[in-house]
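Deviations from the work plan: none for this task. Representative record:
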Amino acid sequence: MQAKNKLGLVFFPAFDWAISPRHPEREERLLYTQDQLFEEGIQDIAGVEFYNPVPATEKDVERVHFAVPDVKTRFSKSHMVSMGGAIEAFDLVFSGRAEKSFALVRPPGHHAQRVVYGDRGFCVGNIEAVGLEAMRAKYGDLRVAVIDTDCHHGDGTEDIYWNDPDTLFISFHQDGRTLYPGTGFLEDAGGPGAYGYNINIPLPPKTGEQGYLYVLEHIIMPILAEYKPDLIVNSAGQDNHYSDPITNMNFTAQGYAILNEKLNPDVAVLEGGYSIESALPYVNTGIILAMAGLDYSGVKEPDYDPVRLRQDPRITEYIKELSDVIYERWQKREILAEKEYGKQKLVQRKRNVFYDTDGIMENQTQNFKVCPDCSGLNYIDSRSDWGSKIKGITIPRDACTSCQNEGYELYEKSGSGLTNVYLQDRANDRYLAK
Amino acid sequence: MLIGIDMGGTHIDGVAIKDNKIVKTIKHPVDRKDLYQTILNAIYDLISDLDKTQISRVNLSTTISTNAIVENKTTAVDLILQKGPGINFEFPEIAAEVNYIDGYVDHRGKMVKDLDYQQLAALKKELTQHQDLKQESNLAENLKHDLNTSQEKNLAVVTKFSTRNPEHEKAIAEYFANDYYQITQGHTLSGRLNFPRRVNTAYLNSAVYNIFQEFANNIAAALREVEIDAPIYILKADGGTMPLADAITRPVETILSGPAASFMGMSALFDNQMDSVLLDIGGTTTDIFFLVDGVPVFEPTGITIGKHKTLVRAIYSVSIGLGGDSCLSIVNSSANDDLAARIKIGPERKGPPLLFGGETPTLTDAMSVLHKLDFGHLSAEQVMLARQGITELAEQLSLSPEDFAEIVLTKAAQTVKNQVDSLLLRLNSQPVYTVREILADRQIKPAEVKVIGGPAKILAEYLEQEFKLNVLLPDQFQVANAIGAALAQPTIELNLLADTQRKILIIPELNIYEKIGSRYSLDEGRKYILRCLKQAAKELSDSKLATEIIEESSFNMVDGYSSGKNIRIKAQIKPGLSCAIEHE
């Protein structure tokens, strides 16, 4: 058997890591996926190669996160290895060792936001953002589309790319009114520097193959065709599956395979998915075959029943209307941005962030400077109920000289009354903390 | 006294070892048309002046199964496969009728869909009718060729995840029990997961069954006739042995045992403390092996023979087309100033060296130009012929024959080094699955190079330059492979899986599939697998064999409200030699 696309797999099940013994994020999570991949003989397919993670460095993490108090304290070795797995997956494609890659690694990452006080939604470090930013640092500017196909809103990735026009973030997920983390609504479209480039597609419970593929064809593919990214990343959660224990959707292994064939991502990164026995072995096999350009038509869950999983016509109708609205918002993004931010010089965004896994409450204000020459200096003032009070300053990659200088000045004069001050100078890949 | 026989492609070597000393060696050419007689002659010659009653064991490394596969002299096999949902497998590499049947067992070993006996009945009807027709035509063939192999057809049955639950394989085998001469069930050959490899392994096992059985029976009878009543063992590709009776039921494990014999021979001739590269440089090829922590590096899943990827456990070995008889030629290169790039060594052998009457210059001829050969019997005329041939090549590059020969030898050593480096790169990036292993980052870094074979002595200094490591040569390497065969001991690998939620324990290799309690522990599993292994070891050999656990894990399973443990243990008889050889 010969893969049409040379596919690199970073398969790292972390068999010695768990959040706690009975937690969904436990050692067993990818055990049956490994069994299935081994039994299918995936490692013998010519053109499919397995690779190990190379642990991430502190700098890799600092490009994306303000880790409080620092990377060493906040991130375990397991997290460094998982993020390193995502970096390796990106690097396989960028270095030309593979045409496409899939990081099947854990722990996952898409709920990890810019500020990290602890674990939220089983995530500490945003693995795909760490992987992607390592590539930007190494290979230069890139226009990227990150499609989050996890059932939960990718609120971490949204936060990281909120004001970045070179990273289009599209997340489809079970409607935030019915599922963790309770965000991801249409109106959340991005900061003043990137309004319209954050696209949320909240889907009703019980959405099936038909609905997901409708959204793909009627929203995601046309937008991608217009955005013309250099790279497509699938933030590949697998919890839209009908057997997932913590969500309420009706997606299937066949559906995931078709989605990946059509979306045609360059890099996929595993996110959530906790039906470890009934879904993951089949969904992962399906995604791997689809990415390798091989026949996946035989990959079905043993209890797959298309009749039982048929989508309610009312859901079909709802999704059609929703898609029209979202696509229209994309087309009118400039008018909508004007409406949202008008002539403001500084845009403020106040939020409370709850770290459910670790039980921490964070209160933060993000401040985005509106700059005519770049996407603008921005900084976060944040405190947690565990006693930290921090300021995190970000000089964006495209920052103009004046924004760069302003960032350093702000870093210099900040400190009093704060436990930590961080400067993320993305323009020069420099990271300071005091 | 231990007897070791190693049959290679061109030569058969024999050795008798008594009290850690080599007492006799022989070397004969192989008659490929009659391998059986070749072996008998070698044994007869070896024991002709030895005390037969002293023989405690005869170990044979044979190419019977390998040749049967390579030369397509195998028995016809029907395949019955249950592939379930997953990849739509096709098996173009298998020249047999493949029949797919319904039913499925999942990765946990849960029965998802049972066998359809109506379907099996229809299949039985179709297959047996087929067979009757075939047998008629075979009868006619038989009259023409008077073939001595059995014409009866065999069956291989493989179901997906049968190593997790073999019930379907067993049921199908039973259902067809009277319709075939022999039936192979996939799960009995390996406890490892890999359906396509299991299919190929089971197919090959049935395909070589008859030819190997006939050979084994003949050998046993012939040795009885000359009053050798010592047990007979057959060498496997993993450097271990198996009793002849086991080899008859699992002949696929006897394939490609030659490289394993040389590896074991080299471990007997050297001290094995340091991680090292082992090179067996022959006439046509150089075999490369690695020794790490005193044991060989194994193939990750199993050995490949022709187009067949199998689950047969094997010592990792890679053969490159570089040996004493490798032909030398000049190629055009854009970088004309790089003389080495314009010289091509091998990869093919076009005949013997000029020195021995060949027609193309070889690596050996280059060595003779440098007066490095110590064949005492070379005539001045032979040496002249070699020098002429090398001079002709050297002139094309405006070099003296001596300078040319130096470049050739350096390049040969470089070629080996480059190959070793790229193999190490692969071996050092084998997938690992725990944070602990990633952080430990265990890398194979050879500290020595050990080399045997005809051109070894001369290439040693060049290898030393390239590898920047000590290159070691043993005193006596002419029959290293036979020594390896003689000293090899039985090996087996067992895989245990205990699922305390399903309350099932399985060791596929021993056909164990039994109930356990819901509180079964990793420790109980360890004790049980070691007990099974020791029992099996006792049946394999009179001498005490060391056993060890090589992998173990215990996963918490949480499934709704019930929970349990998924326990996995891999254990083996420690690979090794039955005694050391005293160096003279």
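Residues 493-573 of chain B form one domain.
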